[in-house]
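Hey Z.,

So I finally got round to the FE2/S2 (inorganic) cluster thing we talked about over coffee. Here's the setup:
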Amino acid sequence: MKNGKLRSQKWFGRTGQDGFIHRAWLKAEGFSDAVFDNRPVIGIANSWSELNNCNSHLRQVAEAVKRGVLMAGGLPLEFPVISLGEVLMKPTAMMFRNLMSMDVEECIRANPLDGVVLLCGCDKTTPAMIMGAASADVPAVVVTGGPMLRGMWRDQELGSGTDVWKYWDLLRAGRISDEEWCEIESCISRSHGHCMVMGTASTMASVAEALGMTLPGCAAIPAPDSRRMALAEESGRRIVEMAREDLRPTKVLTREAFENAIRVDMAIGGSTNAIIHLVAMAGRVGIDLPLELFDAISRQTPFIANVRPSGKYLMEDFFYAGGIPAVMRELLTLLHRDALTVTGHSVEENVRSARVHKEDVILPLERALYPEGGTVVLRGNLAPNGAVLKQTAASPNLLRHAGRAVVFESIDDLRARIDAPDLEVDASRVLVLKNAGPRGAPGMPEWGQLPIPAKLLRQGVTDMVRISDARMSGTSYGTVALHVDPESALGGTLALVENGDTIELDVERRALNLAVPDEELARRRARWTPPEAHYARGYGRLFLDHVTQAHEGCDFDFLRHRS
Ligand code: FES
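And the result:
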């Protein structure tokens, strides 16, 4: 706001032909002169789509936001942005996160907006919204769509994704029938909303709240709960005030805010994907988040949210237990308490009165489920720029393991051979997948939770060490090292692993190594040839030319903040 005039007045407050055109054309929507009187114009960036079930209720949420904007004296104007549905988009929604962020950024910047409410939910839509809004730097508040109600099959509670992987293995092991598998398909997604375990969507909603980009309590309210609409209305009221206060994302997205978000992510056993998204979001405001910072915070943060896949309960239980405000209240001594949030108040002011209502869902620090945070960062000759592993969702007996590699050169190779009766594999082996990274796959899909070979499932094996340059769904579990960097398609050491090589994982020492002499690796490197590029034109080409590696957040190099 300059001299009491809002940004939108550059469009609507002008005399002459330009002002005439801006007002006259908007009047086609039935607005009177009153809306051009220097009242905040609030964009509602809506990632609603019927191609994205997680966000398919966001039109109703938008109506509640509009109500709030009008109540506070603003003018709400809803606009669509690309939506990224995690399960339908191929090769992976991750390939389009940066595209969505550009859509959001340019829509905000190009239009007469004084503030924007960002409606999102499914995994990539939340980081993409924040990345775009951070780059545009117009006052912004996030409203996520909320998690689904818990799934129910007979008397069993079902969690999105997590229980799909579990029951799929039981089906492949012959322990449930085809009929039961079909029954489960109709019981797991019972309402609107995003996946209701602490998967990537719930994690990113929690991260957005911990960053201070949502009103307190936003992340965990179930999508069908009337309180989500009430929070949306309140967010609409608040963004009008934020526009007048000029409370822009760069004032909220500080280093302290990012450290708070990493802390909360570790305490809730959040998705490994959060690391990539946090690095990318921070990059948009010129803040570096080295992987060591994540590991340092992980070492000092107890895991206290007993939610699947690392724990027992579902997001609905997490909401009843107090949600993110209760977690942050519990963590308060470890947080930057003065960090500013979209409420205009500090973190401490926001969560001081929060309480835990179910201590088996959100545990006190002194009774933590695990003494450290969910995700650890591994280094070694197999991952010179880092790899990640969710230790809270891994098998304790595999956290220190050496085994011989069973190598799959690509996802097609894996699909063709993983269940072959003659696959040379036992439970001590390490499954390795190559060419699943940002450029190799492309888009770094969630292939990292490699399936356990069927013949081992039948022997009762439920976990093995698995390594790749892919990501995995936040709903997944197992002893899985991911995001190996540099990726194999760029000639990282992962590209040089051969069947039978010994791989050593030591989570306590944060080590991931290939036990092959340097001279032999040099010989293999000299023979290595890069795979053919997947795209010659279009967005795919732009992606391949500019996507960065996992430790840089997989953002496009030209989208990072430049001072
Ligand atoms: Fe959208 Fe899981 S598929 S959140």
